[in-house]
Amino acid sequence: MALQALQSSGVTFRRILSHFPEELSLAFAYGSGVYRQAGPNSDQKNAMLDFVFTVDDPFAWHSKNLKKNWNHYSFLKVLGPKMITSIQNNYGAGVYYNSLITCDGRLIKYGVISTSILIEDLLNWNHLYVAGRLQKPVKIVTMNEDITLRSALDRNLKSAVTTAFLMLPESFSEEDLFIEIAGLSYSGDFRMLVGEDKTKVLNIVKPNIAHFRELYGSILQENPQVVYKSQQGRLEIDKSPEGQFTQLMTLPKSLQQQINHIMDPPGKNRDVEETLFQVAHDPDCGDVVRLGLSAIVRPSSIRQSTKGIFTAGFPILSPLPPGAGICWGLNVSTMFAKGWEAAGTGKLLIHW
């Protein structure tokens, strides 16, 4: 599996992981603190480290983490692990984030997602949230032998390639492909309209071409619908209606359904396959696919960021009780309807 190429033996990541309950099916680090980015996030040394922890039993995991890292949580901690798990699973994109935690001398944030919800997102793109993170280079810190999870991780990468093909011309460069893939989970994301650097996707891809190539190289070599000239960094794909129909039929279920909803006239109620056949013959096929992506990402990003207002505390660091470890948490203060600013940065903190 391509993702195995990015497994990390980094001591920093493993030391941080040691401060949390061990029952993780997958843990990975991502973002500018892990891979160098161009632009305003280029200061890798001082960048926040972002993690996602995947757990089979969120209730049991939060129960242990509340005992171990009580101050990581916002005021919601007083509602207990059952309510935290309900908020995690039933609102937003299925992720519960704790932010601005100082652990082992590094500022971190971490999201918790259930294994079953992650697998659904990887296969079907219900939210394209954590699945979108995993379409870009990440550092996998730990991963168990769950065959279903590993298969879903691989399927997500192949789906990203197929979706990008549908939005690209017949011939293009590796960089063009990786920019398209990296931008999938930002299509329609409202956060790109409220202060995010508009060149964010370029800043992610350009310094990390080699990492993207490592992640997707074998998939491209094995794909029968592409001619991959790896030495020249060029690709050619089948843009015939037949080729596009084959690609559309392999897209994740949620994306197919969104495309059907966009293209199906009111009252006609065509099945998905009939709609996809029409789209395959449409000169604007790529634009339709992009609209389908936006229909998934926009509501997901809004709901998840709204949830983040409540799961995050006011950014004043305070020590945990003696003997509770060396992670520091957050005190809770006033929440504002539009979020709050990270102290001293002047930037609105929205879970990214």
UniProtKB/TrEMBL annotation:
The keyword Mitochondrion is assigned to this record: yes
Gene Ontology CC: mitochondrial inner membrane
Q: Which UniProt keywords apply?
A: Lipid biosynthesis, Lipid metabolism, Magnesium, Membrane, Mitochondrion, Mitochondrion inner membrane, Nucleotidyltransferase, Phospholipid biosynthesis, Phospholipid metabolism, Transferase
Does the keyword section mention ATP-binding? no
Superkingdom classification of source: Eukaryota
Which one GO biological process term can you cite for this protein? cardiolipin biosynthetic process
Which cofactors are reported in the record for this sequence?
A: Mg(2+)
Name its cellular compartments.
Mitochondrion inner membrane
Query: Catalyses which reaction?
Result: a 1,2-diacyl-sn-glycero-3-phosphate + CTP + H(+) = a CDP-1,2-diacyl-sn-glycerol + diphosphate
Q: What is its main location?
A: mitochondrion
Q: Pfam families per the record? A: Tam41_Mmp37
The EC code for this enzyme is 2.7.7.41
A GO molecular function annotation here is:
phosphatidate cytidylyltransferase activity
Q: Which family does it belong to?
A: Belongs to the TAM41 family.
- What is the name listed in the Swiss-Prot or TrEMBL entry for this protein? Phosphatidate cytidylyltransferase, mitochondrial
The organism's taxonomic lineage, starting at the top: Eukaryota, Metazoa, Chordata, Craniata, Vertebrata
